[in-house]
Amino acid sequence: MKPRLRIGVVYDFRNPPDSGISNQDFYAEILDQAVWLESMGIDLIWFTEHHFVDDGYLPSWVPVASAMAARTKTVCFSSDISILPLYQPVRMAEDLAVLDNLSGGRVELGVGLGYVPQDFEGYGLKVKQRVSRTDESLEILTRCFSGERFSFKGKRYTAENVIIKPDYIQPGGPPLWVAASSAQGALRAARFNAHLLPQGPYETTIQVWLDALRADGRDPDGYRVGIIKPCMVTDDRDRDWPAVLAAERFRMEYYANAFKASGRGAPPDQDKERISQNWVVGDVDHCVEELNAFIKKNRVTDFVTWAVPPGLRPSDMRASLEQFAMEVVPRLKDAAAN
User: Would you state the CATH architecture of domain 6-337?
Assistant: First the structure.
């Protein structure tokens, strides 16, 4: 059965030092915004993660999701992504068990390898171990989510006689998502029976994952594809877009510097067309047309837009988000259902 389309927002909680608002007040405003967004029918709230950044880039999403869960009833929380090599996997499984119970089964988990040197250095870890740590952590997490007692001994982690308590609300634990910017990442997602967060070309992420699922006798319609695809709904682009564009440039400066610091050069598969995560900006009709085409082309089942680009306040995005939730989202869901 074709998965229903879910739509929401993503937060990174980046609050530049010169913003004029304290982190405490900024967090409070975002929590209020989350409640408001749920009242308009938003399905998803995702979080991104990095560490030791001057603007307070969110380093820990589970506490935030717990605070939001206490004030909401239906919205589902997840990460895009948690940098899995930085976590002790059993502890992550326990944190998620608590959040799963607090939220009534409204938590999922999106993970990836990470690549930013300072993220790893601050934890005393080596970037070159990120693949082995991720693979072992995924193995441990899937065993934790099973609800059965187990032991594990690997190169990076050991777990003895583990069973996660409290029990998860969701059978099998929180749904697992794996990010992929290359064929290797897509195969990892398939190997661990995970939903996909593609961050590269379609043919080397989504297509590779689909082929691997089918080769193993699994129906891709039982899985989900999620992505951050920002959207600004406005009837006056010249008036409303410049502030968001400035925030977007600030947001991307971090990634440009982090990518350079990682020494990776260019992203994988530069010779292939990447799935676009550029902003869609325009009136309701324009946004519906562009996003409908994007969803269909890329088999997307879950997408989120940036709720508060860095340097802006939740109130700055209110008009766009209200039109997005009330006028764009229903039309996208109707189109996806037919």
Answer: Alpha-Beta Barrel (3.20)
